[in-house]
Design brief:
The complex is a heterodimer of chains A (97) and B (309). In chain A, 31% of the residues lie in helices and 19% in strands. By secondary structure, chain A is of the alpha+beta class. A two-stranded antiparallel ribbon of chain A has the order 1-2. In chain B, the strands form four sheets. A six-stranded parallel beta sheet of chain B has the order 9-8-7-10-11-12, with helices on both faces. In chain B, strands 1-2-6 form a three-stranded antiparallel beta sheet. Chain B has a two-stranded antiparallel ribbon with strand order 3-4. In chain B, helix 1 packs across helix 2 and helix 1 crosses helix 7. Classes of the chains: A alpha+beta (97), B alpha/beta (309). At the A-B interface, helix 1, strand 1, strand 3 and helix 2 of A face strand 1, strand 5, helix 1, helix 2 and strand 13 of B.
Amino acid sequence: MFQSFRTTVKLEVVAFATINNKMSTDYEFQGWLGHSPEAVKGKMEWGAFEPKKWTEDDVDIQISHCGVCGSDLHVLSSGWGETPYRKSLTAPQTDRV
Amino acid sequence: MNHSTKQPSACCVGHEIVGKAVRVGSKVKRIRVGDRVGVGAQARSCLSPDCPECSSGRENHCLGAVNTYGSVYPDGEGKSYGGYADYNRTHNRFVVKIPEGLPSEAAAPLLCGGITAFSPLKHNGCGPGKAVGIVGVGGLGHFGILFAKALGADRVVGISRKASKRGDVMKLGVDQYIATEDEPDWSTKNRRTLDLIVSTVSSAKMPLEEYLLLLKSGGTFIQVGAPDGGNLPPINAFTLIANGIKVGGSAIGSPQDIEDMLQLAVEKDIKPWTETRSLKDANQVVLDMKEGKARYRYVLVNEKHVNSR
């Protein structure tokens, strides 16, 4: 019985690896890109981008939902320096009262 | 993968991401392919065992933090891109599992807006026996009210400028609403009534001294809204000294805080006020958000991935 349990686990691992390998090639990273501070005026453009380099600590997520945060507008409307808003972790919150 | 259209200076925003894990690194133990997961505003910290923040559950205050978008990773790993997109890639430490029972459109805005309000409440004693004020009732503030109630505060007071917001704010469940522009003497009338205030406003002209007068002696004021340039109005030293109060700040929350918040949201059946919009219409949504039309949070829906679970 113990032996059969081990076999099952092994098979699952193989299946898992197969899924991962397949998945790594059949989707592309695309999204709404801001190319200049004009982006915040309704001028983001859909296009491909290169995600961070894959490491074995990473997770790829197929996005179904994304909230719109005031920080998004702040970052879109600023110039695109090397690291926008590097002084701030979350980028400024911009809630209205 | 074809990156011929890639523009090196481009930025893809969005840091309230929910979706399905489709590829999971071999070192990742907590997450499996197919899990419903989320990413908030932080994509990485230094994760060093020697880091005082990362080794004590305060990764959100690590000096090596990387934002979910618009940041550059260390060691040449590339740039971070956010969630107005089809796919996202993030280190598993900052990928949280979304509990069963929490709809994705409710979970998404909690990952930055929600946690920014929840974390300072959790870490500053919000709970039974406490009276808590939330300044500003926009996206962040409305989460503040919902979570202050959920954490069991005796009294929750919403504080905003206009009397016209009273109806909405009362519906969120506050015990009292203060309209600072429409109620003369609001500060003196409500003096020393609150144990904790979380301020979500970002105007450099906020009546900060008057807010501080609302604190009981020994009370705490936590700022989470960030004015342009970071400038707050001056604080008179005697306001601090005579009232014996503390003024502090807070940024988003740790991965553990986010998990605690999501669990509480399920247990207390918290329903953020959100409006779903199509990801296809992201440009119009940004314009509407800029005009202050959100009540109180827009959630972009990527239709082609919603039904693929």
